[in-house]
Design goal:
Layout (H helix, E strand, L loop, with lengths): L23 E4 L2 E10 L6 E5 L8 E5 L3 E5 L4 E4 L3 H5 L6 H4 L3 H10 L6
Parallel strand pairs: 1-6
Antiparallel strand pairs: 1-2, 2-3, 3-4, 5-6
Amino acid sequence: MAGNLWEYPSVISRIDDAQLVGYGVEATDGSVGTVDKHSDEAGSAYLVVDTGPWIFGRRVLLPAGTVTEIDLETYTIRVDRSREEIRNAPEFDPDKDLGDPGYHQRIGGYYGGPAT
């Protein structure tokens, strides 16, 4: 994978400080849920996606480098991962995972990019 997995690709058109919470998230093969939280922190940008009833209300973290498009008109974010990849991702627990560098490394390794 080219580029930093934890930064939005330079080809993504987005408005700085855009509020992405509530946007729908589309995998390469269908909808996976909605954005519950996002971070634009340099070198550590990500989306937390609430998968809703699709996979029993799990939340997963998607590094910003997986984003291929942010459509500000339809409130949709497209990512370059399949529903199956997202379904099998390590579950996100905000109470323990946000401050855990090991979780960040596991996510980076899972999505095939550098851990940091």
